[in-house]
C-alpha cells in the first residue's frame, strides 16, 4: 500500500463519496422531508437525530472527516484536469466537466450551510428546529442558493455513484455502464425531489 | 459550379522545441481525393505562403500512409486524428493543422511520443519468453478470446486518445488510455498471463490507472475503434482485486 499511495487515496476518495457521504446525504434529505408533514414532525425527527448516542463521534467519523478528505483531494483533482468540452463535446466528457464544476459549487454550498447551521448551533447562537431553516429560506436569495446547492450536491453524488461503479470495476461493459447511467439519472431525479420538496416547504410553508 | 482550384491550409508552426509557435497559411493546388499528407507534400514542393512569401517547408511525421503506424497524428480542424486518413474532400475549409498539444513539439507538426513508450515500459507491455533454452510451445489461446484480443492489439501508439483525454496534461502524470489497454491485452494472453501481477503493479504506481476520470473521450476518438473504456474498467477491477490480494493475501505468489 505504501508504494501505491496515490492509487489508494483515489480509490478511497471514490468510495468515501458513496459510503458514508452519499448515504449520509440521502439520510439527511429524507429526515428533512419530515418538514413536509409539519413543523412538529420535523422537530421531532431533528431532535431524534440530535440526541443519538455518541453523536459527536458519529458526526466526526461519518460526516466531518470523510467530507474533509473528499473535499481536499477533490479540489486537487479539479485543478489537474484540463477540460476540453469545446473540442470534444461528448456526453461523458460533459458529465466529467460537470462533476468537477458541481464539486466546487457543492464545496462552497456545504461550507456555508455548515457554518450557518451546525457551527451556529454548536456556538449556541441558534437552535436546531424548523424555525431556523424557515428563517434562512424566507430570504429568496438564500432559497435559490439552497436550491442550486442541493441540486448540485445530488448531481455530484449521482454521477459520482456512476464513477464509483466504473472506477472500482463493477461496471465494465459499455452496456452495463449505460444502464448504470440511467440508474444514476433516476437516483438524481428522486433524491433531488426529496431535497427540493423540503426546501419549498421551509420557504413557502406549502 | 467551377471546379475548385486550391485548398487553403492554416498551419501552426514552431521552429524548435523552445521557440514560440506561429501560424502560416498556404494555398495548395486541389486534386481529387487528396488527403492532408498530399497537401503537406505540395507545400514541401513549393514552400510559399498564401501571401507569396518564401518560407521553410512544413515538417511532419509519417510512415505507413494507411493508418497502422500511428506516426502522422495531428490536430486537424480541432480534432486529433491521423493525417493520412483525413481526406480533404471530407474536411471543412480552410483546413487548420496543429501539433498535438499533449506532447512536446519537436518542430512544426512533429511531436515527441516518448511518454507513450515510457508508459508501455511502466506496465511491462510485452511477454517475457527469452531464455537460455527452448521453452517449447506455450499454452493455446481460445479462438473467441483471440478475436477480441486482436482488437486491442490494433493500438498503434498514435497518441490521439491522450490528446483527447482531459486528464493527460502537464499538471498530471496520468499514463493515458493506450498503455492501460495494452496491459489488458498482454494480461489476456495465455503466456503473458503468467506475469499479470507485474503489469497490474505498474498500473497501480503513481501516475497509473487512478488518473482516469472517466471522461471517455478516448474511446470516441480512437482511430482503430479499440474499446479503451472497457479496457480501463476491466483493469480497474483487476487492480482492485490485486490490491486486496496484496493487502489481505497470505503470500506473494500472486
From TrEMBL, chain A:
<keyword id="KW-0479">Metal-binding</keyword>
<feature type="binding site" description="axial binding residue">
    <location>
        <position position="113"/>
    </location>
    <ligand>
        <name>heme</name>
    </ligand>
</feature>
<feature type="transmembrane region" description="Helical">
    <location>
        <begin position="91"/>
        <end position="115"/>
    </location>
</feature>
<feature type="binding site" description="axial binding residue">
    <location>
        <position position="28"/>
    </location>
    <ligand>
        <name>heme</name>
    </ligand>
</feature>
<feature type="transmembrane region" description="Helical">
    <location>
        <begin position="12"/>
        <end position="36"/>
    </location>
</feature>
<feature type="transmembrane region" description="Helical">
    <location>
        <begin position="56"/>
        <end position="79"/>
    </location>
</feature>
<feature type="binding site" description="axial binding residue">
    <location>
        <position position="156"/>
    </location>
    <ligand>
        <name>heme</name>
    </ligand>
</feature>
<dbReference type="GO" id="GO:0016020">
    <property type="term" value="C:membrane"/>
</dbReference>
<keyword id="KW-1133">Transmembrane helix</keyword>
<keyword id="KW-0812">Transmembrane</keyword>
<dbReference type="InterPro" id="IPR034804">
    <property type="entry name" value="SQR/QFR_C/D"/>
</dbReference>
<dbReference type="InterPro" id="IPR000701">
    <property type="entry name" value="SuccDH_FuR_B_TM-su"/>
</dbReference>
<keyword id="KW-0408">Iron</keyword>
<dbReference type="InterPro" id="IPR016002">
    <property type="entry name" value="Succ_DH_cyt_b558_Firmicute"/>
</dbReference>
<feature type="transmembrane region" description="Helical">
    <location>
        <begin position="143"/>
        <end position="167"/>
    </location>
</feature>
<feature type="transmembrane region" description="Helical">
    <location>
        <begin position="179"/>
        <end position="200"/>
    </location>
</feature>
<dbReference type="Pfam" id="PF01127">
    <property type="entry name" value="Sdh_cyt"/>
</dbReference>
<keyword id="KW-0349">Heme</keyword>
<dbReference type="InterPro" id="IPR011138">
    <property type="entry name" value="Cytochrome_b-558"/>
</dbReference>
<feature type="binding site" description="axial binding residue">
    <location>
        <position position="70"/>
    </location>
    <ligand>
        <name>heme</name>
    </ligand>
</feature>
<keyword id="KW-0472">Membrane</keyword>
<dbReference type="GO" id="GO:0046872">
    <property type="term" value="F:metal ion binding"/>
</dbReference>
Automatic annotation (TrEMBL), chain B:
<dbReference type="InterPro" id="IPR017900">
    <property type="entry name" value="4Fe4S_Fe_S_CS"/>
</dbReference>
<comment type="similarity">
    <text>Belongs to the succinate dehydrogenase/fumarate reductase iron-sulfur protein family.</text>
</comment>
<dbReference type="Pfam" id="PF13183">
    <property type="entry name" value="Fer4_8"/>
</dbReference>
<dbReference type="GO" id="GO:0046872">
    <property type="term" value="F:metal ion binding"/>
</dbReference>
<keyword id="KW-0560">Oxidoreductase</keyword>
<dbReference type="GO" id="GO:0051539">
    <property type="term" value="F:4 iron, 4 sulfur cluster binding"/>
</dbReference>
<dbReference type="GO" id="GO:0051538">
    <property type="term" value="F:3 iron, 4 sulfur cluster binding"/>
</dbReference>
<dbReference type="GO" id="GO:0008177">
    <property type="term" value="F:succinate dehydrogenase (quinone) activity"/>
</dbReference>
<keyword id="KW-0001">2Fe-2S</keyword>
<dbReference type="GO" id="GO:0006099">
    <property type="term" value="P:tricarboxylic acid cycle"/>
</dbReference>
<dbReference type="Pfam" id="PF13085">
    <property type="entry name" value="Fer2_3"/>
</dbReference>
<keyword id="KW-0408">Iron</keyword>
<dbReference type="InterPro" id="IPR025192">
    <property type="entry name" value="Succ_DH/fum_Rdtase_N"/>
</dbReference>
<keyword id="KW-0816">Tricarboxylic acid cycle</keyword>
<protein>
    <recommendedName>
        <fullName>succinate dehydrogenase</fullName>
        <ecNumber>1.3.5.1</ecNumber>
    </recommendedName>
</protein>
<feature type="domain" description="4Fe-4S ferredoxin-type">
    <location>
        <begin position="146"/>
        <end position="174"/>
    </location>
</feature>
<dbReference type="InterPro" id="IPR009051">
    <property type="entry name" value="Helical_ferredxn"/>
</dbReference>
<dbReference type="InterPro" id="IPR036010">
    <property type="entry name" value="2Fe-2S_ferredoxin-like_sf"/>
</dbReference>
<dbReference type="GO" id="GO:0051537">
    <property type="term" value="F:2 iron, 2 sulfur cluster binding"/>
</dbReference>
<keyword id="KW-0004">4Fe-4S</keyword>
<dbReference type="InterPro" id="IPR012675">
    <property type="entry name" value="Beta-grasp_dom_sf"/>
</dbReference>
<dbReference type="InterPro" id="IPR004489">
    <property type="entry name" value="Succ_DH/fum_Rdtase_Fe-S"/>
</dbReference>
